[in-house]
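RETRY 2/3 - previous attempt timed out on the joint model. Re-submitting the same 470-residue input unchanged.
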Amino acid sequence: MVDNKTLQNKAREVISRDDVRRLIGWKRGTFGFEAAPAVIKDPSGADDLIFDATCVNNLASFITLEEKPPVPRGEEPDTRKTAIMVKGCDSRAIVLQLVEKAYERDDVIVLGIPCSGVIDRRKAREMFGDVAGAVEATCEGDKLVCEVGGEKKEVDRKELVMDKCLRCRYPNPVISDELLGDEVEKFADDDFSDVAEFAKKSPADKWAFWDEQFSKCVRCYSCRSVCPMCYCVECVVTNLRPQWTRRSTDISENTAYHLQRAWHLSGRCIECNECERVCPVDIPIMTLNRRMTRDVKELFDYEPGVDVETEPLLASFNPQDPEEFIM
Amino acid sequence: MSEEFEPNIVAFLCNWCSYAGADLAGTSRMHYLPNVKIIRVMCSGRVNPLFLVNALQQGADGVLISGCHPGDCHYLEGNFFARRRFTLMRNLMEHVGVDPGRVNMSWVSASEGAKFQDVVAEVVEKAKEAGPMDQFRRRQLNW
Ligand code: FES
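RETRY 2/3 succeeded.
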């Protein structure tokens, strides 16, 4: 893992460049096991930046989030670059955004950071309870050393990191202009056993499960807002004409919303787990996305966000695509 | 309820093949089941998978999307895109527990009136098996 000094020096160097407008990174959060995103515009901000196992946020969503008001007459638009720090999974979001031409490759400077897993705040909460101050967590081999309230605690890395990290195939950024720190080994391969397990249920059981989950949804749209791949200026779920989903939070509209969300991410989900992390009512959103990921891989042999040269899955086709269910 | 359940089927037929196929079935006086409500679209590639969710919300018990045979699409490749989309959408529906028999797709060309008849019969049969769609149908508000 990269040490913070190197990271800060690099950030200072990058943000001092004339052609860089802003740099997006992480800084220490205010409490608990999550770092906070930081956007710095001048070199003085670089001292705050950090990287450790608390840096869960996928910063790729911030590149497209910026509002672009019309430029006043007589002024030139600001075309300077955005620099961004990415973990392995975040870098896949960048690749996919490039594939979809959300921006040009020249518009971003990618500072890749090999990552050895980030902390799941839900697991951490079970282990440590509510923590008042910000926690520092460094990775040492197979252990995570967490500084909770001035006390150092060693935990097995496998017990505290997110599930996505346990099956992460791309801990090293797949795209980067500069790599900070040494490359790391991946934990394991993804065998989609969780998806296979869920698929064994009967349709009635599946619906009973989702009925309960979707009923909890308050439609805050956090999962959409945090998703690096949901960057449409006008979103289908908030559109009033045509209105695809009504705004009431009943089971019908909630299901429609979640189907829409999952559908729009099929073949595009890069499994950063952000949707599930931010959900205030703990809906296992990734269970939907994982199924899509598996099917996309099995049926079309496609993996989103690993290669800038590929075409988006649903904007391309193969005449030999499977069609067993078609009459 | 003593009466047999009669499912509502919404069919999205492409203008150039399947709609003409259905038309042929009609003009040659083949009887196809009246459960199916046909919506004409210009191409099966026009059908947004969200139509399907919306149809199920609004009272359909099954959905049929039908287009030209692969390679015969009037717009050359619309049905190839549609095929990918609905393969995925069907799997997604199945994943949340919607009976996969409610989501159907077929290739019916303009000369296949008889095939259209069979397809409709099969779709209705499957929807009958699956029963009324009550999972996430919109509840009518009673003000
Ligand atoms: S025109 Fe029939 S499927 Fe495209």
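The domain at 9-129 of chain B is CATH 3.40.50.960 (Rossmann fold). Closing ticket.
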